[in-house]
Inverse folding.
C-alpha cells in the first residue's frame, strides 16, 4: 500500500474513531443485520467480485427465507472498488459512516484489503472472509480480521511441491506488480528456500491491465521448467495464449485467486496442462455435504452452477451465519469475533473450521486441479 493511500485510510478512520466504542451494536436492529461488501464489481477482474457476491447472497437469501438469524434478516450492502485501493478506502468509509454496517464481509483482493486494514483496526469493525491468501491479513493477527480460506503460502507450497514431484528443476514467477503478486512471490520463495532453491526468474505486469508482453519476454528468455503465474483471469489468459504461441514449454500454474471458471472459459483447450491450486473442494464432487448444500443454494437463489468463486462465497457466508447464530441475540462486534475464535474443528458440512485468538485463518486445505481438454478437473 502506498503512503498516500495509508494516510487517507488513517485520516478517514481517525475521523470516525471517536464514536467507535459507542457503536458496538451499530448495524443491528430487532429486524436487521447490516453487512458491507466492498469488492470488484466492474473491470477485468469483476468475475471474482460478482462470484463472491453471488455465493454469499444466495446463503443470506436462504437464511432470510427461513426467518433470518434470531429473527433478524441479513441485509448485504455492496460497493464497487474496481480492484483499486483508493476506491476500496472510499467505499469502506461509506459502509461504516453512511450505511452504518455491523461488519464488513467478502472483500476481494490483496491490494484493496491491505488498504483498509488501518480502518478496521482503528474503528474496530470486523472484516470477515476476504478473498485473498495474503499473509498481511494473517500475521501478525489483527483482532478484527477473520480469514476463512487457506493462505497464499499454503497454495505456493502446494504448487512448488507439485512442480518438483513432476521433475522441475527451476521455477519462475510471473506476477501482478502489487501486493497480491508480491504475496505469492514471497510464498513461492519460502517454499523454494525450504528445498535449497531460489526463484529462477521474475516477470511482472500492471494491475487491471493485460500488458503481459514484457513479463512474458523475461520468461521466454529464462526458459524455466515451471512458472507460477499470479493474477486474475484476464491477464493470465492472455499470458497463456501468448506463451503457447511463443513456444514456451514451461509447466504453468496459478493460485485460486485467478477465478478458475472465468479462466477456463477464456482459454479453453489453450489452457490444457495449466495447474490451479484451490482453497475450496471441487464443485463437481458432491461427496461433501457443504458442496451439495452450496450447489442447491446457489442454483436456487443465484441461478448459477456452483463454481470455485461462488462456492467460496457460499462457504464464507455459511461461516458468518454460523457465528451470528452462535453469538446469540445480544451479539456485538466484539462477541462476533470471540465467537469465531471459539471455533474448534467446527463442521461446516465436511470442512473443519478452527480459529483462536492467535490464529485468524480457519482453513488451510489446498486442493489441486488442472485444465484438461478445455475443462477443469481434479488432480488426485
Amino acid at each position: 500500500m502506498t503512503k498516500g493511500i495509508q494516510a487517507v485510510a488513517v485520516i478517514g478512520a481517525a475521523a470516525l474513531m471517536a464514536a467507535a466504542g459507542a457503536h458496538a451494536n451499530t448495524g443491528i436492529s430487532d429486524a436487521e443485520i447490516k453487512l458491507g461488501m466492498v469488492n470488484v464489481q466492474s473491470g477485468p477482474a469483476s468475475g471474482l467480485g460478482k462470484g463472491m457476491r453471488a455465493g454469499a447472497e444466495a446463503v443470506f437469501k436462504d437464511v432470510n427465507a427461513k426467518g433470518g438469524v434470531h429473527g433478524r434478516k441479513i441485509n448485504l450492502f455492496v460497493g464497487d472498488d474496481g480492484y483499486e485501493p483508493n476506491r476500496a478506502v472510499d467505499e469502506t468509509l461509506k459502509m461504516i459512516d453512511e450505511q452504518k454496517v455491523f461488519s464488513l464481509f467478502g472483500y476481494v483482493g490483496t491490494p484493496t484489503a491491505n488498504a483498509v486494514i488501518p480502518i478496521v483496526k482503528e474503528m474496530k469493525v470486523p472484516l470477515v472472509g476476504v478473498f485473498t491468501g495474503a499473509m498481511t491479513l494473517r500475521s501478525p493477527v489483527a483482532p478484527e480480521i477473520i480469514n476463512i480460506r487457506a493462505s497464499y503460502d499454503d497454495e505456493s507450497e502446494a504448487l512448488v511441491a507439485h512442480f518438483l514431484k513432476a521433475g522441475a528443476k527451476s521455477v519462475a514467477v510471473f506476477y501482478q506488480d502489487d501486493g497480491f503478486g508480491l504475496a505469492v512471490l514471497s510464498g513461492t520463495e519460502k517454499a523454494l528456500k525450504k528445498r535449497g532453491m531460489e526463484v529462477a526468474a521474475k516477470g511482472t505486469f500492471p494491475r487491471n491491465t493485460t500488458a503481459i508482453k514484457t513479463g512474458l519476454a523475461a520468461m521466454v528468455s529464462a526458459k524455466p521448467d515451471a512458472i507460477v503465474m499470479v493474477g486474475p483471469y484476464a491477464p493470465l489468459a492472455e499470458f497463456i495464449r501468448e506463451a503457447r504461441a511463443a513456444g514456451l514449454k514451461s509447466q504453468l500454474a496459478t493460485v485460486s485467486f485467478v477465478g478458475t471458471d472465468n479462466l477456463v472459459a477464456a482459454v479453453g483447450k489453450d489452457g490444457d496442462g495449466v495447474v490451479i491450486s484451490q482453497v475450496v473442494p471441487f464443485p463437481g464432487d458432491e461427496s461433501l455435504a457443504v458442496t451439495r448444500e452450496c450447489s442447491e443454494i446457489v442454483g436456487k437463489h443465484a441461478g448459477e452452477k456452483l463454481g470455485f468463486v461462488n462456492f467460496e462465497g457460499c462457504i464464507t457466508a455459511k461461516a458468518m451465519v454460523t457465528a451470528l447464530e452462535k453469538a446469540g441475540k445480544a451479539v456485538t462486534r466484539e462477541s462476533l469475533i470471540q465467537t469465531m475464535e471459539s471455533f474448534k474443528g467446527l463442521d461446516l458440512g465436511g470442512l473443519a473450521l478452527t480459529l483462536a485468538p492467535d490464529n485468524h485463518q480457519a482453513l488451510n486445505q489446498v486442493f489441486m486441479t488442472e485444465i484438461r481438454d478445455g475443462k477443469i478437473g481434479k488432480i488426485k
Observations:
- The longest strand covers residues 32-39.
- The CA atoms of residues 36 and 104 lie 5 Å apart.
- The chain has a mean pLDDT of 95.
